[in-house]
Amino acid sequence: MSYIKDPKGIEVRSFEMITEGLGNKVDHFAENEKPIVKRLVHTTGDFGYADITEFHNDAVNSAMEAIKSGCKIYCDTNMIVTGLNKIGLAKFGCSAYCLVNDEEVAKEAKERGITRSMVGIERAVKDKDTKIFLIGNAPTALFKLLEEISKEGAEKPKLIAGVPVGFVGCPESKAALSDYDVPFIRTNGTKGGSTVAVAVLHGILYQMFERDRY
């Protein structure tokens, strides 16, 4: 039985197949957006992500600037934190965190009758070093983030990856991003998830590695 065993070879061939499969469906994306779309397809096995992914307000360049500054990245699930390339982020002085399992967050959420994701966002936006938000699970986290950044004096994130998965409030939370002048990347409709959020950030981060080679 003959098959590719080398991890790098598998990845290279995978992206060759993705490029072939997408054809001209990515022609309308900017050059720094195409690698992200391809990574979303690679992560999900779903070519449909080329149709539902949108980039707004120079999101990729904005995120790169934030990463170069050594920012913090807030994730709405610990799965996203676990999936991110920690060594790669550390090269730029960046770190990722999640607060949904924090005991104080859980207690406050229960007392107020809201989700832990919402309380986590409320706390994260108060940290001036947190400039990137990866929302892959909870529409309530995305809604709450938009509410918080609309307050007077609030700082706007350098990137919101609005890619929650699900049905209740999910498509609506992503659509709401259009009402805010903030750099964002979203996947329209019900598709998304923690792995998709990871893929968005990696699609940006790995381009930065390539640039640093030369």
TrEMBL record:
<keyword id="KW-0413">Isomerase</keyword>
<comment type="pathway">
    <text>Cofactor biosynthesis; adenosylcobalamin biosynthesis.</text>
</comment>
<dbReference type="GO" id="GO:0009236">
    <property type="term" value="P:cobalamin biosynthetic process"/>
</dbReference>
<dbReference type="InterPro" id="IPR003722">
    <property type="entry name" value="Cbl_synth_CobH/CbiC"/>
</dbReference>
<feature type="domain" description="Cobalamin biosynthesis precorrin-8X methylmutase CobH/CbiC">
    <location>
        <begin position="10"/>
        <end position="206"/>
    </location>
</feature>
<dbReference type="GO" id="GO:0016993">
    <property type="term" value="F:precorrin-8X methylmutase activity"/>
</dbReference>
<comment type="similarity">
    <text>Belongs to the CobH/CbiC family.</text>
</comment>
<keyword id="KW-0169">Cobalamin biosynthesis</keyword>
<dbReference type="Pfam" id="PF02570">
    <property type="entry name" value="CbiC"/>
</dbReference>
<dbReference type="InterPro" id="IPR036588">
    <property type="entry name" value="CobH/CbiC_sf"/>
</dbReference>
<protein>
    <submittedName>
        <fullName>Precorrin-8X methylmutase CbiC/CobH</fullName>
    </submittedName>
</protein>
